[in-house]
Structures are given as C-alpha cells and as structure tokens.
Inverse folding.
C-alpha cells in the first residue's frame, strides 16, 4: 500500500486538536477572521468552534478581548476550563497568522496558560513569518503549515 504523501493542513489541524485532548462536546476558540478550514477542523473532531474577536493591527485573535471574554465567561476547575454559560469544557484555542501577520503570541500564550487552554497555531498563511525573531509555528503546543499551491510556499 502506498502512503499518501500529502496531508492537508485541515487534517493536520484535526490531528493537533485530537493530540491536544479535544473531545466531542468540547469548545475550541478560533478567530472570527480565518479560512473555513480552521473551524471545520474543530467540527470534524466533534467540538464546537467558538469565535473570538480579531485585532486591527495583526488581524489575528485579540488577546485583550479574549481575556475579557474568558474572565466573564470561563471558570477553571481542577485544571480544566469550562464555559459557565454552556457548561462545556473549553479545551483549546487556535490562533491564525492571517495573511502572514503573526498574532501577538506572548499575551495569547499567557492567557491560554492561565485558563488551561492548549494553543495551536494555524500557520497555513505564515510560512516565513516571524514573531520576536523566532519563526511562528513553534510557539504553541502544535503548529501547522500548509503546502497547498495557493499558499506562501509557492
Ligand atoms: C488554506 C488554509 C487552511 C487549509 O490549508 P490546506 O493545506 O489547504 O488544507 C487552513 N487554515 C488557514 C488559515 C488557511 O488559510
């Protein structure tokens, strides 16, 4: 049997979510501005995407809005984050480096650590992008790139 050589990013995202411990019924935070694959990957593992506001400067997830929302809505119990309104577990956040603009990773990582969320970087559009002199992708628990022909790799 031949191995498939190309794993599409949506699949890599899905695998990252599973490895991060996302289970059916969980909620996962994704940015409001992204390609549909980000939210699809969340849906493919049976979780529910929850859309977070984007920031004007980076076009990515807005750390201060996320913090505000989590402070109002989330509660950490026994090392896990729960949405007080829905009762569901919030397990992870997927940050997207939109059009190659790196999101502000430091505050996002700090917030995710405080609220016990795994941070996954969707860097489909950000091959060659740097945050604080280090390539994006290596900051979160998982980072994924895309080798699709319509992305920066070509
Ligand atoms: C294109 C894109 C994807 C999907 O990548 P594929 O390799 O085509 O599956 C996922 N997320 C974002 C932000 C994208 O732009």
């Amino acid at each position: 049997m031949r191995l498939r050589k190309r794993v599409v990013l949506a699949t890599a995202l899905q695998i990252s979510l599973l490895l991060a411990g996302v289970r059916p019924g969980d909620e996962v935070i994704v940015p409001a501005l992204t390609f549909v694959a980000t939210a699809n990957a969340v849906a493919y593992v049976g979780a529910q995407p929850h859309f977070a506001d984007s920031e004007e400067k980076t076009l990515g997830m807005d750390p201060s809005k996320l913090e505000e929302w989590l402070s109002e809505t989330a509660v950490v119990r026994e090392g896990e984050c729960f949405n007080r309104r829905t009762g569901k577990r919030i397990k992870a956040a997927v940050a997207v480096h939109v059009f190659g603009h790196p999101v502000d990773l430091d505050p996002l990582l700090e917030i995710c650590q405080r609220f016990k969320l795994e941070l996954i970087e969707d860097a489909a559009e950000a091959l060659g992008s740097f945050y604080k002199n280090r390539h994006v992708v290596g900051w979160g628990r998982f980072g994924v790139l895309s080798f699709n022909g319509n992305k920066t790799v070509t």
Notes: The chain has four helices and nine strands. The radius of gyration is 15 Å.
